[in-house]
Amino acid sequence: MDYRPKILKRIQKKPIKVNYLKVMKERCLLCTCCASVCPNSGIDITENEVIFNENCTECKICVKSCPVGAIE
Ligand code: SF4
Ligand code: SF4
């Protein structure tokens, strides 16, 4: 029998994901290199932004691929 309160059960079902990678907007050229090398489809590129999504495992392959060193 699970005696956790309902709200706690709901929260604990979701894996807690913390993204540590950041893109320096002032450097980013939106060239999409990072997204194309990602093995996990962990990057979404919008009109003006690079966003790491929940698929990112922080393998850092994209960091090396960025031609201007915008990912840190
Ligand atoms: S590879 Fe670098 S410059 Fe290109 S979109 Fe990604 S973060 Fe921006
Ligand atoms: S760190 Fe790895 S998994 Fe995350 S976005 Fe970059 S290449 Fe993809």
Automatic annotation (TrEMBL):
<feature type="domain" description="4Fe-4S ferredoxin-type">
    <location>
        <begin position="48"/>
        <end position="72"/>
    </location>
</feature>
<dbReference type="InterPro" id="IPR017900">
    <property type="entry name" value="4Fe4S_Fe_S_CS"/>
</dbReference>
<dbReference type="Pfam" id="PF00037">
    <property type="entry name" value="Fer4"/>
</dbReference>
<dbReference type="GO" id="GO:0016491">
    <property type="term" value="F:oxidoreductase activity"/>
</dbReference>
<protein>
    <submittedName>
        <fullName>Formylmethanofuran dehydrogenase FwdF</fullName>
    </submittedName>
</protein>
<feature type="domain" description="4Fe-4S ferredoxin-type">
    <location>
        <begin position="19"/>
        <end position="47"/>
    </location>
</feature>
<dbReference type="InterPro" id="IPR017896">
    <property type="entry name" value="4Fe4S_Fe-S-bd"/>
</dbReference>
